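Per your request, structure below.
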């Protein structure tokens, strides 16, 4: 009888030890080794603050006006419209550079598709990158020397018939 009780005690001890070992080992076996990219927009995402207006001109006449935030220093230009979950169709961002040169933008940490409108030193639109891909790290270059860039919601240019050769004022 004592022998039988000893065997049962050893079996119970073994089950207990195996259960404890499994408790610590199983999480390591089921954890995915693949990292993921967090595409969530932070809860403290920036909100739009009007700092000016941009008017799009056709044949020298006012065509449509939007409210803009202005990015005029390196830090503001680097951040752009990153971390925004949306912007109204009536707003955008105006980037101002010190002198005209080829510009190149990307969509890193930008969750909304945009039209990127490149403008020369005479405020004439030289190229439009329409419907850019959110979160893309691919360069979106100007097709010439640009001193100003306007970012607006994707499709804005097409909906409002904004074309290369049109102009802006601000």
């Amino acid at each position: 009888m004592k022998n039988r009780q000893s065997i049962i005690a050893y079996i119970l001890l073994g089950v207990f030890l195996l259960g404890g070992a499994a408790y610590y080992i199983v999480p390591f076996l089921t954890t995915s080794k693949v990292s993921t990219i967090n595409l969530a927009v932070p809860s403290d995402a920036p909100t739009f603050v009007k700092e000016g207006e941009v008017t799009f001109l056709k044949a020298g006449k006012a065509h449509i006006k939007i409210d803009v935030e202005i990015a005029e220093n390196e830090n503001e230009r680097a951040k752009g419209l990153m971390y925004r979950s949306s912007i109204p169709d009536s707003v955008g961002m105006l980037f101002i550079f010190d002198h005209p040169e080829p510009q190149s933008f990307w969509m890193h940490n930008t969750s909304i598709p945009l039209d990127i409108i490149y403008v020369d030193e005479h405020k004439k639109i030289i190229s439009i990158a329409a419907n850019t891909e959110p979160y893309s790290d691919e360069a979106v270059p100007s097709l010439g020397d640009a001193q100003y860039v306007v970012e607006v919601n994707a499709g804005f240019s097409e909906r409002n018939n904004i074309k290369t050769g049109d102009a802006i004022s601000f």
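The first strand starts at residue 52 and ends at 58.

Regards,
D.
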